[in-house]
Each structure stands twice: as structure tokens, then as C-alpha cells.
Amino acid sequence: MIALNGKPVFPGLFTPLMITTEDDLEVINQALDGDKHIGLVLTREEQQEHPTVADLHQIGTVARILKRINLPDGGMNVFVSTLKRFRIRKSLSGDSPILAAAVDYLSDEEYDTDEVRALTRAIISETKQVSENNPLFSEEMRLNMVNIDHPGKIADFVTSILNIDRADQQEILATTNVRQRLEKVLVFIKKEQELLRIQKRIQGQINEKIEKSQREYFLKEELKAIKQELGMPTDAKTSEYNRFREAIQDLPMDPETREQVEQELEKFQLMEPNSAEFTVTRNYLDTIVKLPWKEPPRRDLDMRRAERVLAADHYGLEDVKERILEFLAVRKLKNDSKGSIICLVGPPGVGKTSIGKSVARALGKKFFRFSVGGMRDEAEIKGHRRTYVGAMPGKVLQGLKIVGERDPVFMIDEIDKLGQSFQGDPSSALLEVLDPEQNIAFRDHYLDLPFDVSSILFITTANTLDSIPAPLLDRMEVIRLSGYIDEEKIAIARKYLVPRSLLRAGLNKKAVKYSKAALRSIANDWAREAGMRRYEQMLDKIHRKLARKQVSSPDLPEQYQFEPQDLEQYLGKPNFPEDVVKQITRPGMTVGLAWTPYGGDTLIIEAINNPGKGTFKLTGKMGEVMQESATIAYSYIRSIAGGYGVPADWFEKNEIHIHIPAGATPKDGPSAGITMACTLLSLATGRRTRPRLAMTGELSLVGQVLPIGGLKEKTIAARRNGIKQVIIPMQNEKDLEEIPDHVKRGITFHPVSTMEEVLPLVLLGR
Ligand SMILES: Nc1ncnc2c1ncn2[C@@H]1O[C@H](COP(=O)(O)OP(=O)(O)O)[C@@H](O)[C@H]1O
Ligand SMILES: [Mg+2]
User: Fold this and answer.
1) 425 and 528 fall within a common domain
2) CATH number (domain holding residue 12)
3) Strands 748-752, 725-729: parallel, antiparallel or unpaired by DSSP?
4) What is the model's pLDDT at position 204?
5) E strand or H helix at 90
6) How many percent of the chain have pLDDT more than 90?
7) How far apart are CA 741 and CA 727, in angstroms?
8) Containing structural domain, residue 643
9) Is 671 a catalytic residue?
């Protein structure tokens, strides 16, 4: 007998056997010498060395040796045909290591019943199924199986190729009852099928995973290649995504806002970097992380410092500085930075912008400025919705993004020139920005999230209050800047404008000196308006020319001293006509004072008479109100002219023409009423008006002088034009207090209530 260490061998097979041990060789040799039969029996234990008969299972298989093949290494292969089961009855080995036993041959029992036939069929069909999915079953084996005619053999064959334990196989070998054997095998086949099913499922899942990851891998590689081809950084999106995510984590936002932003961020991660949407979302996120979400730092107002900065940056303007300091103090006491907005009103070039900057500097805040002049679309303030191509946030958020702090000083220029159109009303948008009730949660269309803009200190500027929408004006603290007289201009020029202009031209600070007379001449002859802008331009013009001279001929004097007569060479002929006072040369001419958005001004009202039929003509671009007041003046003078020795039919026989030169500039308002009346009476009486005298006042039909506005600007204009006496309405007398003494110096004011008081002051003797 040969002991099998692996698995049992079933009857009815042709199979090779490896013979490795000396003892087994001896068994083969003895068998070949005899009837060539050997017994094959499984050891009870696996890997048993030198087993005895007692170490073997009781049931084995008898086999006939068909062929012996000697191997080169001394081993041997034999080919056997297995025949039948046997049971060991008794060991015959004795002391010999050779295994030998007396056995009983066993035959199959109960193999010819209907039940067995049914079981056999079941096994055949089940095995077919298994074999289709199992590569271990070759085609040949399948055919083989169909040809086996005995149910017991079929069970044996199937068992021998099933992948089951040695113990289980041995049990089947030991089962001589065929029905029972078939039943057991059927169970194993079912198990095998189950195993195969699970194996198949797992296989499928693995394949799927592999396929998916492979697909992704290939697509990613392809995408990378495309990006490289287009010169795009391959993982820009990821790095940008990470940058945004980190930045957003650190931003202090309320939970709802954060949730919305994070949703946007997740969308961004899923977007194709080449899509238009991607750019839109990236810009959006970029805006979000650049906006100043952080609560602004507490800045304690240092009143002394504020005072110092305001004083250092500007000459004069004492009342303005005072008002601003008061404003800041109130804000500090109320201990909230919200509410009330400053509105600086005044002609161009009087320092509105520069005061705004100065306030920012005094408070240690950032400064941002934008103009709303001519703005017609509310989107400029509130932004466009993101769905628009090239949409951007409005000016307010843009400004915050630029300064990067939540509490800057914002200057909104030209609030009096705000437009209106079908694209929404920018003034109501501006109101949302400025209104403390609304601006804690300002909603820009682009951002589409509430953003707190209430910490911004708003300063608006305007030339006139007339055209500022009332709801806006209500929320503003108006501070007026009226313009400068010559003395102020000279001081501002000397201290601020000349040094700055020299610097701009690249000239040495000490290289140029102006005499006071020269500075006055610039103000008088080239830059006569209320503000300093033109003055500054004139200085720049001089310095540019000087710079050029210096570069082209370096041997020029190191220092220039400017006197009035040197200016024309640099600035050309004076821009301004003769003084108004010198123009009053004949009866029918009077000097009036006017207020304009560009500051106060003098205007000459002139009149002539031609023979005619008591008609009356107006030219010089007079507005409706002014035309009315001309009519009133005409009627009034006509009614009283007799008292001044004017012939009763004078008006009937004359056609009178009133004109205001500088006809291109529109003029309006009632305040030239008394001036027109004086002109008419001067014409009718042939008496000239007093030189260096100007006037302002509305005239009523019965000869009362009614109050006017803009007295300060008008006074400044009078000063600038060499006027010595000014007639004003009595009711404006109180306003004189608000005009600084240095502005009023040298002017005599004549407050009057009726025209009867005016005429003697104005008309000279014949
Ligand atoms: N009181 C002043 N002191 C010093 N510089 C002044 C003063 N007023 C105006 N300026 C200067 O005049 C120029 C024009 O002023 P700006 O602020 O632009 O006027 P606005 O904004 O009112 O039109 C600026 O260079 C400004 O610094
Ligand atoms: Mg300005």
C-alpha cells in the first residue's frame, strides 16, 4: 500500500503517482513483480512521515500499475488505473516499513433506484453549470462525465475534481451507499456554486473599480495634456481652491453668509477651469476674500492730533475746520461711528477734496474718492448681478476692496450732479449706502450678500445744494466753503501751492521766489475765480517753462525772483478783462453781485434806449425768474421815474434794451432786481452810478428790497473786484457776522429795506 499525504484517489480514474520514498519504491517494485496491484490509502494526519497501517484511514482504493517512468534524479512516476474501494481488515506489515494489509473489496450499494437516477441527473446538470464558470473543467472532462454510465462513478469523478477538503473527500470515498454518496456530493456542488457566485460578484466589483479609476486616470492625463498644450498651469484650480478655502475660513462672517460663500466655493471646485462660469466664480470669490470683513479696530479719536493735522494741511478755513472738529467730537461722544454725513459745498478748487484727505489723515484712516457726477445707473453704486457678462461690484465695495479696511473715509464727489435714468435711480442707491438704518447690511447686487458699510465715514462734495435730492440732503451736515479773497490766495500759494508745484516740476524749493505783488498779480490777472485750481495751473505753467529753460541752458541763474512784470512772459496776456469798476463809463450801467456754483461773481447790467414805442427787450441768457424781476424793475421805475425828473412820456417814446454781458453764461435768480432798477433809472435820468459800488437784492413791485442768498460768496467776489461799497437787503445784515473780518475789510455795507434808500446811494449828480 502507498500512503497518500494529499487527497484520496477515487476509483475509475487514470492518474499519475509520484513515488518519492525508498519504501514506496519498494512497494512498486514488489507489485510489478507480482500482479501489479497496489492499495492507495489516505493518511489520517496530513504530512505524516513513515506512517504505519494504523495511521491510515480504513477505506482506500485499489489500483493497477499501467506504466513506470524512471526519472533522472532517481525518483519514479507511475501511471495507474484505479479500480475499486477496499477496507483494511488487518495489518500485514509486521516489523517491515513496507505497508501491507489484508483487505475486503467493497461494492457500491443502492445504485439502481429512481431516487439515485434523479440525483444523478441533478448532479450532472449542476456540474455543467459549475463547469462553465470554472476553467478547471476542461471540455474533455465534461465529455468524460457524460460518458460515465454508473451513478457511483459520477459521484466519485465529480468529487475528485471539486475543490474540497481531504477529510470531506475521504468521507465520500468511505460512503459505499451510492444514494448517500450522491446526496453528499450534491451539497458540495451547491457550495461550490455559491462560492463561484460570490467570487464572480467580487470579481465584478473589482473590475468595475479598476475600470472607473482607469477611466478617471486616463481622462485626467488627457486633461493635463490639454492644459499643457494651452499653456495653463495644470493644477491652478486646486491651488486656487485651497487659497480661497483658507482665506474664507479666517473671515469673520455670520453663519448664513458663510454657508452661501462655502456653497459657492464647492461649486467652484466642480467647475471646468476652461469654462466662462469658472472665471466668473473665481472673480467672485476673489472679491469676497479681498473685502474687509474684519471688524475695524477701535481708533480713539485724538482731538489734538486731528486739530494739528487739519491746521497743518490748510490755510484759513477756520470755520470749516471748527465744524469738522465738532462733528468728530460728537461722533466720539455718541460713541458710535454711524450716522450723519458731512457735505462740503463750495466752488471748485476751494479745498473740498483736500479737506477730505486731511480728515482721513487726522483720523488715521484710509481715503477713497469717487465721483457720482453724471452717474445715471444705480449699478455703478450697487453693482451688476453676477449673471451679467463682466459684472462688477459697485463703487462702494470696489472702494472697500481697494483700501482693504472697513472704516475708511469715503469722499463722494459731485453729489449735486447725480443723474437719473431708466436704469434705476442712483440717488436711492446712494441713500442705501448713506442711511445708517440700511447700511449695516448693504446689499450689492454683485456680492448678493449683506455687507456692513456703516463704519465708513462719508464726506460728500457739491458745488450747490439746489440740485441735491432732498432725502440725501436731509441726512447731511452741510459745511460751506465760499472761496478766497486775494490775501488768502497769496498765503495759500506761498505756503502750499508754490512748494508743491516746484516739486512737481523737479525744481529746487529755493530756486524760485515770488514777491507778494507777483502772487497778487497771478490772482488778479490770471486766476480770478473763487478757488485755487486755476492758480495752481498757472504756477505749474511757470515752473514747467522754468524747468525747460534750466535744462536747455544750464548756465542760467540759480535763483529766480518773480515780480509782476515777469509773469506775462510765462503766462501770456492776462485772461481777464479790465476791472468791472473801470467799465462803468456812462449812464445805464450798474454793478451787481451774483452767486453761481462756481463762486460769487460781479456782473454788469447795462441798458440803452432807442426811439420807439414803450417796449422793453432783454438779452444775455436770463432765466425765467430773472426776466420776471427785470419786468418788475421796469414797472417799478416807470412808476416812480417822475419823482426823479424823468419826463412823463419818456418810457412811451423809447424802446429799452437791457443786457447782461458774458451772454454765454446762463444767469438766473431774483437777486439782480435792485441792480436792474438802478440801471433803468440811471438810463432814464442820464445820471451815472457811483463807481466801486455794487449791490444785491430782490425787488418787490412796490419797491421793497427782499433778502438774498450767498452773501459771503458775493462779498468775496466784491473784494476780488475792487468794490468798496455794497448795498445789501436789511434782512441779510445778520449774515455779515458770519463773514470773517479780513474778508469784509475795506468794504462798507449799506443795509436797506426799500428802493427809496437805494437810489440816493447809487445815482451820482448830473
Ligand atoms: N485753504 C487751503 N489751504 C491749502 N491748500 C488749499 C486750500 N484750499 C485749496 N487748496 C489747494 O488747492 C487745490 C485745489 O483744491 P481741491 O481740494 O482740489 O478743491 P475742490 O475739491 O474743492 O475742488 C489743492 O491743491 C488744494 O490743496
Ligand atoms: Mg474736488
Assistant:
1) no
2) 2.30.130.40
3) parallel
4) 86
5) strand 76-91
6) 43
7) 18
8) 580-762
9) yes
Active site annotation includes 714: yes
Q: Which three cell numbers stand for residue 94?
A: 509486521
Rounded to whole angstroms, how far apart are CA atoms 352 and 375? 20
Task: Judge if the beta carbon of residue 599 lies within 6 A of ligand 1.
Answer: no
Q: What φ, ψ does residue 50 adopt, rounded to 5°? A: 45, 55
Quick one: cell of 367?
A: 481715503
The better pLDDT of the pair 20, 38 is held by: 38
Residue 167, domain member (yes or no) = no
Claim to verify: residue 242 and residue 348 sit in the same structural domain: no
Please report whether residue 208 resides in a domain: no
Separation between Cα atoms, residue 293 and residue 472, nearest integer Å: 27
Q: What is the atom index within ligand 1 of the atom nearest the CA of 348? A: 23
Query: What is the distance between the alpha carbons of residues 606 and 724, in angstroms, rounded to a whole number?
Result: 20
**Hey, what long-range contacts does 17-20 have (CB within 8 A, 24 or more apart)?**
17/77, 17/78, 17/79, 17/80, 18/75, 18/77, 19/75, 19/76, 19/77, 19/78, 20/75
Last residue in a domain, options 56, 90, 106: 106
Name the active-site residue from 153, 321, 489, 714: 714
Residues 383 and 283 in one domain: no
For residue 558, give the CATH number of its domain: 1.10.8.60
- Which sign does the torsion angle of CA 722, 725, 729, 733 carry? positive
- Number of domains present in the structure of the chain: 5
Pair 596, 611 in one domain: yes
Are residues 506 and 326 in contact, defined by beta-carbon separation less than 8 angstroms?
Answer: no
Q: Which among 653, 660, 626, 624 is positioned nearest to 638, based on CA atoms?
A: 653
pTM of the entire structure?
0.65
Confidence of residue 125 (pLDDT cuts 50, 70, 90): confident
Q: Residue 530 carries which side chain, given as an amino acid letter?
A: A
pLDDT (0 to 100) of residue 133: 67
pLDDT digits (tens, 9 = 90+) for 592-648: 999 888 888 888 999 999 998 888 899 888 889 999 999 999 999 999 999 999 998
CA torsion through residues 174, 176, 180, 183, sign? positive
d(CA 76, CA 72): 9
User: Which of 459, 480, 501 corresponds to the end of one domain?
Assistant: 480
314 CB near ligand 1 (under 6 Å): yes
Q: Is 496 in the pocket of ligand 1 (CB under 6 A)?
A: yes
Residues 348 and 386 in one domain: yes
- Same domain for 528 and 600, yes or no, is no
Specify whether 512 is located in the same domain as 651.
Answer: no
> Are 747 and 614 members of one domain?
yes
Separation CA 423–CA 378 (nearest Å): 7
Residues 6+ apart with CB under 8 A from 61: 8, 9, 10, 11, 39, 40, 41, 82, 83, 84, 85, 86, 173
Burial state string for 162-197 with b = 16 or more CB within 10 A and e = fewer than 16 = bebebebbbbbbbbbebbebbbbbbebbeebbeeee
Measured in angstroms, how far is the CA atom of residue 411 from the centroid of ligand 2?
A: 9
Distance in angstroms (rounded) separating the CA atoms of residues 678 and 278: 74
Residue 702 per-residue DSSP state: T
317 Cβ closer than 6 Å to some ligand 1 atom:
yes
In this structure, is residue 473 part of a structural domain?
A: yes
